[in-house]
Amino acid sequence: MPRSCDEQRYNSCNNCYFWQPADVTENGDTLGTCRINPPLFGNEYSLAAWPHTLGTDWCGAYRRGVPPRPADSEQ
Fold first, then answer.
1. 51 in the Ramachandran plot: left (φ > 0), alpha (ψ -120 to 50) or beta?
2. In terms of Cα–Cα distance, which of 72, 75, 67, 22 is closest to 49?
3. pLDDT tens-digit map of 7-60
4. Within-domain flag for 20
5. Does the reported pTM lie above 0.70?
6. Number of folded domains that form the chain
7. For 50, how many CA atoms within 13 A lie in the half-sphere containing its CB?
8. Is the Cα torsion angle 11, 63, 67, 29 positive or negative in sign?
9. What angle do CA 74, 20, 34 make, to 5 degrees?
10. How far is Cα 75 from Cα 33, in angstroms, rounded to an integer?
């Protein structure tokens, strides 16, 4: 069953506890990193890297009822 636009917005990276906002793109989208799993290794510099996603992206790991990450000002 397709998800409604409102449900997709609610279940997006922006609302996930494991997503860390990092930057804003030229068109105003928020870019961040998904921290639900350990970082991936093997880039050209052998540094750890987490997947980059937009705040409006979503995945199957998001679960309703898990509180979103508090804003930096709330920590």
1. beta
2. 22
3. 555 678 988 888 999 998 888 899 999 998 888 876 676 678 899 999 999 887
4. yes
5. no
6. 1
7. 15
8. negative
9. 145
10. 19
- Return d(Cα 73, Cα 75) in angstroms, integer: 6
| Rounded Cα distance, 25 and 49, in Å | 19
- In 3D space, the residue among 28, 25, 26, 19 whose CA is nearest the CA of residue 51 turns out to be 19
The answer to whether residue 26 is domain-embedded is: yes
Q: E strands within the chain?
A: 19-24, 30-34, 52-54
Judge whether 52 lies within some domain.
yes
